[in-house]
Amino acid sequence: MEISPDVHWVGVNDTESKFFESLWSIPKGVSLNSYLVLGEKKKTLIDTVNDNYFDEYIENLKRLIDPEDIDYIVINHVEPDHAGSLSKILSIASKASVISSKMGIDFVKYYHQVPFNDISVDDGDKVDLGGKTLKFIMTPCIHWPETMCTFLGDDGILFSGDLFGAFDSIGDEIFDDKIGKDSIYSAKRYFTSILSPYYGSINSALKKLGDLQKPCRVIAPSHGLIYRNDPSFITKLYADLCSGKFEEKVVILYGSMYGNTKVLAEAVSDGVKDKCVKVALFNATYDDPSEILTELWKAPAIAVGSPVYDCYIFPPITNLLELIKVKRIRQRVFGLFGDYTWGGGPLYQLQNKIKELGSEVIGSFVKSQGSPTANNIESAIELGNLLAEKAIKNTKESSALAPVQDPFCPT
Ligand SMILES: Cc1cc2nc3c(=O)[nH]c(=O)nc-3n(C[C@H](O)[C@H](O)[C@H](O)COP(=O)(O)O)c2cc1C
Ligand SMILES: [Fe+2]
Ligand SMILES: [Fe+2]
Q: Ligand 1, atom 16: nearest CA belongs to which residue?
């Protein structure tokens, strides 16, 4: 499918996998976008696809060229959803040189133990394809440290890798002609599931890409729609997601085996609504973690409730708290509640975990023994009131930005 003269989408849609990264549900699949740029002298692939889809991929290429004739394979990102087919492509395109960042070339060698010519590029380096020139822009830590973008200035196309990506297969409608609520949500869900901890690096990348001398008319990411109608739609969405600004809302996460903790969760929710603040209520067993993260990303106030389970916190809640840690959901206020029968002490494990997350616990811990009493419910409503008030205050005054401590990805 043509994007502009001699620039083609040659990707595939992964409709088989139930989870992306074996972690994030993808009920509508995900596209693995690869692009073919045909210069007058040089034929170039931008990224490849997961090697499960190699057969379909090579057919896509054969419709346009003889794959043996490929001169360059640009690897913006070495994660196997994009570079996975490289060994197989190189076995056919034996004269091709692999172009990547310096770290990218190292990473390619870890995954693809086959001989190949390599060209490592740095910021601003260019490769002439004959009538078309590729320029490389180092945008490290767009969730891996080796990542870069490739800009085809002649056509104004930015091949942005995972940056600006989205979940959901795109079928034959590869362009942003019909951006609806679903596509906005799939872009947000992709960001919060995959990229969010690296918002500092994304902000640096956005600034760098904003300084491009030639106008960027098309954004072609490695997942999801290609933005040609309105590329500013996705850059604005990212600027907002990485702004650190809160939205006035409270997210409630609870687990419950027999419905008692759920009664408390609903009372907290009522308390939030009393103050006319938006609330999102999630059951840790049944609700999709990536949907939960999408709501959590801009939430200033969070309530967490758990029953005691074998002297511990209920495991689905522990899992969610681990995800909150990994995805650096920090600088929030938390309210806590829970239910037990013979020993409520383990609920205090929640308090320590929240402190480890770099957030603050507010209000009193609402604990019920067996079925919640009227007093317990009253306390849960008060906790909801308090969280809502804090959500209103912190949305006006505070920021969610906190530095990511990854030695490979300084921000
Ligand atoms: C497998 C299992 C383990 C439990 N372990 C504990 C425990 O260690 N301490 C405790 O006080 N209650 C324990 N309980 C009791 C629950 O915390 C109690 O039933 C609570 O009301 C469940 O809340 P829920 O209705 O929200 O699921 C356990 C219950 C189950 C089913
Ligand atoms: Fe990736
Ligand atoms: Fe990816």
A: 340
